[in-house]
Amino acid sequence: xxxxxxxxxxxxSFRKPMPTMLVALAILGGWLALALAAPVIAPYDPxxxxxxNMLSPPSALHWFGxxxxxxxxxxxxxxxxRVDLLLCVAGVxxxxxxxxxxxxxxxxxxxxxxxxxxxxxxxxxxxxxxVLVLAIVGVLGPGLLNFILALTLVGWVSxxxxxxxxxLTIRESEYIQAAKCLGYxxxxxxxxxxxPNAIGPVIAYAVSDAVLVMLAGASFxxxxxxxxxxxxxxxxxIADGQAFVQQAWWICLFPGLAAISLGLxxxxxxxxxxxxxxxxxxx
Amino acid sequence: RxxxxxxxxxxxxxxxxxxxxxxxxxxxxxxxxxxxxxxxxLEPGLAEKWDISPDGKTYTFHLRDAQFSDGSPITAADxxxxxxxxxxxxxxxxxxxxxxxxAVSAADAKTVVVTLKSAFAPFLGNAEIWNMGIxxxxxxxxxxxxxxxxxxxxxxxxxxxxWKPNEKLVxxxxxxxxxxxxxxxxxxxxxxxxxxxxxxxxxxxxxxxDVVRAVPWAQVDDLKTVETVDMRLEPSTTIYMTLLxxxxxxxxxxxxxxxxxxxxxxxxxxKAITRGYAExxxxxxxxxxxxxxxxxxxxxxxxxxxxxxxxxxxMAGREVKILATADALSQxxxxxxxxxxxAIGLKxxxxxxxxxxxxxxxxxxxxxxxxxxxxxxxxxPDLAVRWAVCGTCGSxxxxxxxxxxxxxxxxxxxxxxxxxxxxxxxxxxxxxxxTEEVAQIPLYYAPNAVxxxxxxxxxxxxxxxxxxxxxxxxxQ
Amino acid sequence: MTGLENGKPPLLDVRDLSVTFGAFxxxxxxxxxxxxxxxxxxxxxxGSGKSVTCRAVMRLLAAGASAQGSVALDGRDLLALxxxxxxxxxxxxxxxxFQNPASHLDPLRRIGQQVAAPMIRHLGISKREGWQxxxxxxxxxxxxxxxxxxxSYPHEFSGGMKQRAMIAYAxxxxxxxxxxxxxxxxxxxxxxxxxLQLLKxxxxxxxxxxxxxxxxxxxxxxxxxxxxxxRGGEVVEQGPIDEVINRPSHPYTKLLIDxxxxxxxxxxxxxxxxxAPLLDIARLSVTFGAxRSLLGGIGGDHSFRALDGIDLTINAGETxxxxxxxGSGKSxxxxxxxxxxxPSGGTIRVDGQDVGTLAGDALTxxxxxxxxxxxxxxxxxxxxxxxxxxVAEPIWRHGLADRQTARKQADALLETVELPRSLRDRxxxxxxxxxxxxxxxxxxxxxxPQxxxxxxITSALDVTTQAQILELLVRLQRERALTLLxxxxxxxxxxxxxxRVYVFKAGRIVEQGVASEVLTTPQNPYTQALVASLAxxxxxxxxxxxxxxxxxxx
Amino acid sequence: xxxxxxxxxxxxxxxxxxAGISLVTFLLVHMAPGDPAxxxxxxxxxxxxxxxxxxxxxxxxxxxxxxxxxxxNLVSGDIGLSxxxxxxxxxxxxxxxxxxxFLTGYVLCLAVPPTVALAILGARRPGGxxxxxxxxxxxxxxxIPVFWLGIMMSRFFGVSLxxxxxxxxxxxxxxxxxxxFLPAVSTAIWLVPVLTQSLRAALxxxxxxxxxxxxxxxxxxxxxxxxxxxxxNAVLPTLNLLGVMVAFMIGGAVIxxxxxxxxxxxxxxxxxxxxxxxxxxxxxxxxxxxxxxxxTLAVDLLTAFIDPRVRF
Lengths: 283, 476, 554, 312
Ligand SMILES: Nc1ncnc2c1ncn2[C@@H]1O[C@H](COP(=O)(O)OP(=O)(O)OP(=O)(O)O)[C@@H](O)[C@H]1O
Ligand SMILES: Nc1ncnc2c1ncn2[C@@H]1O[C@H](COP(=O)(O)OP(=O)(O)OP(=O)(O)O)[C@@H](O)[C@H]1O
Ligand SMILES: [Mg+2]
Ligand SMILES: [Mg+2]
Hints:
The structure holds 4 protein chains of 4 kinds. Chain B has 16 helices and 19 strands. Chain B is of the alpha+beta class. Helices cover 32% and strands 23% of the residues of chain B. Among the domains of chain C are: 275-289 and 297-351 and 451-465 and 483-533, P-loop containing nucleotide triphosphate hydrolases (Rossmann fold); 356-369 and 376-449, Rossmann fold (3-Layer(aba) Sandwich), CATH 3.40.50. Chain C has helices at 50-57, 83-89, 101-104, 111-123, 127-140, 146-149, 159-171, 189-206, 217-223, 241-246, 251-258, 330-337, 360-369, 387-397, 403-416, 433-445, 463-480, 491-497, 515-520, 525-532; strands at residues 12-21, 24-34, 39-44, 65-73, 76-77, 94-97, 177-181, 209-213, 226-231, 234-240, 277-288, 304-315, 319-324, 345-350, 353-354, 370-373, 451-455, 483-487, 500-505, 508-514. Chain C has a 6-stranded mixed sheet, with helices on both faces. In chain C, helix 5 packs across helix 7, helix 14 (387-397) packs across helix 15 (403-416) and helix 15 (403-416) crosses helix 16. Chain D folds into 2 domains: 2-75, no CATH class; 89-310, MetI-like (MetI-like fold, Orthogonal Bundle). Helices cover 78% and strands 0% of the residues of chain D. Chain D is built from 14 helices and no strands. Chain D has helices at residues 2-31, 36-41, 47-56, 63-75, 89-124, 129-143, 146-160, 172-179, 181-207, 210-217, 222-252, 254-259, 265-274, 278-306. At the A-D interface, helix 4, helix 5, helix 6, helix 9 and helix 10 of A face helix 1, helix 6, helix 7, helix 9 and helix 11 of D. The site of one adenosine-5'-triphosphate has 20 residues of chain C, from strand 2, helix 1 and helix 16.
């Protein structure tokens, strides 16, 4: 539905280098590199269990120590980055796209369309996430993919609502009227004129959302949701390590730090994007 | 104030056998007999004394003068009513302990006569189980179900002050309790439900509560160093084991089961998981039940041989679905088992589910293996064998669908035999057969890890999961 | 006139003021002074830096701009003041009327509140008192039913009404200095005359000094005592008004004076009478706000009839003018033709087709044939698109050319509306008012429409540029048989450009006919008033004179 | 008049939403494996007793009949009896509702002022030192896992320092305030950055708006400009986001409620689900639906109140 690169329009100039953007790209690039190179760098098989060596503290052998079943935390953190990077993207993009589209349509066309979408919205927000997760696990089985499905089914509402609020005012502006008058198709108006002007707060929110998604899997672990063992994923590592945190702080700390650093990367990215987006109007 | 992860869902003693309820029934209802908190010996309860007919088929209980919490006397009619309810009411959750009973009748106001179908050695012990609590016939007749849903008339040391389902149950001493001078402390008791172990411990440390049940092993050492906390490991009849599904391949195959058993180093697991607080298990029965065979060597850890056996069985490379719930312990066990089985050539995968789905899947036999635990209410092994290894006792051998006619016959025989020595032989035989056939893979015998505030004296959790609240006094 | 009494310290002293946006110097070494009570006019080419100069005086430049030089008000250098002191001066001592009134009004607050706010702030009066004064001010600037209108929101105002609200907003505190950036561009002459009268009165009574930016030399000559002529960011000439007008020394000034409308006529081709009407409007009515506003109940009945039974026809190739008082429904008519307002009654037919029923391809074809240039040049441009993109977009969207070619055509179009190439990659925010207006025109022309509706397209242009644009329209009309619906308050332009004219008042047509006749021998009293209040630049001037403005526009 | 119309229309729509959501929830919960009777009767319960329980509650009937019965009861105003506790669902919900509402209100009180303060500070001089610090702190706040934070806070403030209780709801208003302090703070710490980001982005966008310049030209101080002009113009997206968040919070402040053992709706929901207590789940879903619709309505009304251009 977006026929011109919206982002290119929303953020046209890279003339000035921006420090936050550079840091963000460095962090994200770094994690991407680590994720790709995980099999090469990781000293151990991330799933290899060593009963005799459980909960051993960080040492020269195990840099980040071992976990409650003797797996090497360092290797797991590395391997988990693959899952988590993917999760951040896959968990945010679908709701973002769906929610933004619905928000645009709903806000722009108003009337019946809006009413229908807003009732679906009410339904979704009111819908207990747990029931959904439970049903999905029950019917489709547990697993990351289904988790992302659940996130998407629920996550779009925030975006839709956010975008709709923006569109409601933008659609009254004269440049949208001018665009109508010029005979642009609604798709073009929405994609090219409304969206770039509405997307600012959405990007800001999407980035915070990425961080939340990363940690959500761990929260729903008790329903059997999220990454399934033994797959390494930071959120699950933290959640599982919680019970052992008294003697083995390293099980929780390192995945936590990893998650925070990746989150930082995303947050800074969002920040930078916001700045560039704003520059779109003036420079 | 006691916290437990388990919920109280009903106050009717016959209606549930779930962990949270078991703990509370003992506080609300007296039974015909009671067990001494210290020694565990059977002692008179509501029944002052009893006679057993020579053929072991008729038990006559003579009741003492006792009153319900509303002050009305506890009569033989109440006792007969209560026991018959447990035995015959459709909604009774756990009628098994009274399986041998033919009829219960009130001979006069103070005498109850129980006739059995045949001699049944564990009967007295069974009559002490938590769900055998005596309820007021008048109250139930008058208010019916509602009585238990709101505030029941009780016969035990406590009565209900307030029940907030899902949150807490507040008890206060029953002034009409028959044991004079008990409860020792007149403090109210709050049974609070909190699912997260971290929160439970945090509350204890913050002094918001006095007792924590089910302390995670990982926290035991830490709590031992806390001054205000008395961290105890109390004997229990709990056994941790791995269920195997005998209904489908690979574990319908004996050699595959044996291979799976040998692949598991349960000594290492016990040490690793419980930090050595639990004993590795050697048979399919809990270690502290009567007639447990201490000397049986158990399944040895021989990974090399396991590999061979598995190859022989033709089940190598089979996929194995290990069910696990999301708590840390279950995860840990599942992971360890998965790794050890992988080493001998199975293809195990872990499937996380919640409790409801767990029961659903095991009940339907839609799984291959699952690590879990259970415990026995009495020291007598009868209920245990019926639960764990008997194919004809309604439990499907704890959903493993293990069935061996010889074992089933032995189970029946065990109850009819009055001579302890002979009974010991029978139960040892059962243990031998079922362990050899790997009905389940025994892992370890775990004590109850309970942390108490030091200001409480005399409180403990008995092996049959009853708090000795009435014996408890509160210090400073 | 308080005039130039030498010896008195100047009220405002601007010295060597330069403003740069990055590498681009928008204002170069501008100096002028203003005595108390004096009215200074600034005229000049569109984009010559007039607005930027005024913003620099108020220290209201955009973030990317930097200003050098000094601006002294009563001897205090404004460029060096602290934020607090500045706040006390802004609005109190200096008032400012912005060029784009639409975007300078807060869309969320009632007009009355906005007008009252500075008075409440600076004069320390109560809210009620502020509101009452606001209503009075709105009345003063010629807004009908001021009590009711004070409750309206900006989006419910017509272009001219917003401008008047802006004026009320600026003069409420009776500042010492008023900077008025094209204060009367979107106003019809009667209201314009009334506003000028009001400003002059303020000047006389309270000694209000003024900087008046205008492209209308007639207005400037009417009320200013001195004038500054700017071009390309520099002051090319300044001096007392008579001198500059009668003896211009700079060639640009000469050109400016010669291009005054009324001094030239545009040879528009006469229509071949009798041809079928291209546009046929019958009994058109438009009603606003009938029970639609959610919280509308508060202000009583909000329903408002903006057009009431309009009949209007335009033949192919004709140029028809619409004049009329501000808020009379001119823009509403234009917007209805292009289907941006839904009529509550009547029909609009283009070539016999009912516009209201068009859909799908027919609608697209209609859009290509009928185009409109919006009254508010700045708001009608997407803030995120460069102007070249904005102009190229309709071309490729309608499949008239691929994007590459569309770009080239856009560049050509920008050139035809007199916009230099160097501006093509700017965003609307970086352009002057007149520049935006021309972008809007270029964009509308991109589709080569048959019927062009032009809503005040030259109001923000200096006369030289205006002349060029009108020239362009005439040429297009000749070459492409362009039909033009020209909405303007500028009678002189309308009379020289249009063949027929309709005069609007309060949503009705009060007079119509051949342009030259209607505007020379008006029949309707309103038209008469309109014509009478036209401020023409006298061919030979000796002294500025004031016109009698006894009648009210309302 | 239009106000009443809008409200009544929404309430009508509410009925549709409720019907839809009841059906979907009903199907989904029943589709999930797990038997309430088993969970109710306990592990060692016999097959017969489980069958008896199922029969008693009509769980053995075909699904559509169960649903019809449920709807019929619903229409007559009865939302059912908890399978587990044998108590009316309404009574349970009423019991668990207050802590959640209190917590939600508490979180709002704790989250909104800092959000506004931080967003102002940040937007006042975008890119300035204050803004950078706020941004970094905000980013850090975003990246901290809520449950991790919850546990750490309960350890530190609850156990080590003993300042605040780590569980429960307390009694009396101050008791509630005291008991819910940590949970409210943990939630707010997560909420504030999300809202601040959104508000700050919108505010910065408005700093360059012409009408802000105009207000400045009238001598309005930065404070006045902020409160009277910029904030109302920028607040709508954030308000909408807040609406979504509050709806989510009422529906499931589960993590916080479990970590701090708050007896609220989230706790009830999780327990009801784990125990497959169908009617409690259904009842809660209805409550969430109603509260969502009410919140949406409130936000929409506020939106229309703030922005006269917006029509519904
Ligand atoms: N924010 C900006 N960034 C870059 N250039 C700008 C900016 N604002 C204005 N300009 C440029 O500065 C020049 C002077 O603009 P200004 O608005 O002062 O013109 P003006 O004399 O008021 O013209 P008009 O009569 O058309 O309003 C123009 O060429 C314009 O493009
Ligand atoms: N959206 C709206 N809601 C309510 N009233 C409106 C709306 N738009 C315009 N009006 C009213 O309709 C009337 C006609 O407005 P219109 O914009 O057509 O005037 P105009 O003739 O173009 O005036 P100007 O010369 O000042 O631009 C005005 O009184 C205006 O207040
Ligand atoms: Mg200008
Ligand atoms: Mg107009």
